[in-house]
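Running this now, will post back.
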Amino acid sequence: MASERARVRVERLVWILLYGGLLALSLGLFVLREGEAFWGWILIGGGAIVAAVGALLVWVRSRMKEEKK
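Update: finished.
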């Protein structure tokens, strides 16, 4: 069983990764439009990977057992 502290950490990490990844992805799209193809694709790829890890952690959090009091 996961402790309350571990669940809180995972929940915080989920939101940081999801929003950070989506922010990097959108920034990459803007950079790509300005003509910097290399940095644009780096930001898009990195942002997509980070957002996917956040989405995976949503699943991990849903599988964590809650302690009964």
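The mean pLDDT is 91. More later if anyone needs it.
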